[in-house]
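Hi W., the zinc ion complex you wanted:
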Amino acid sequence: MLVSQFQAVGRDLCARGLVSSHSGNLSIKLGERLFITHRNSMLGCLAEQDLVETGVNKNDRSTPLASTELAVHRSIYQHTCASAIVHAHPAYAVTLSFSEREIVPCDVEGNLLLPKVPVLGWGMTVKPGELAVEIADALNEYKAVLVRGHGSFAAGQLLEEAYHYTTTLEESCRLLYLLKTLGISLR
Ligand SMILES: [Zn+2]
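Structure:
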């Protein structure tokens, strides 16, 4: 049953173009254990063997097989009460991350669900697995964060919840981008 939750969200992220063929990663926490997508797995067609089980705090034989963002996922679980994480590369959100320090959705649904989404990683090149503490700290206050020029991290109690934040963020960023393109000021 666990794998079907990963498959549903992974397939949809891929179908919506929120990840490329081999990017993005998903995880859930169950007690002291963490289930995360395999390094370089294809979210659009996840199989049972694409899920890696390892510790939230401790390494084991499976740890090297986990996504390259494992350190970020672990840090989020260690510092927040989240039980599920979605990391994606939503194009409009990443585009705006180059120019904005925070995203404030202007549409009704986006604004209700995500009043503000901070953009982290200004002035540096962030490699996978880096900024783990900063991302976790921000997710204590916000439901989703963006890493500049990279992608989004959203956390919730269920994968579907974190996925909802991810799609809402991208929808709001698409609208913000279109409004900017039309020269419509929101102030
Ligand atoms: Zn990424």
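The two ends are 47 Å apart (CA to CA).

W.
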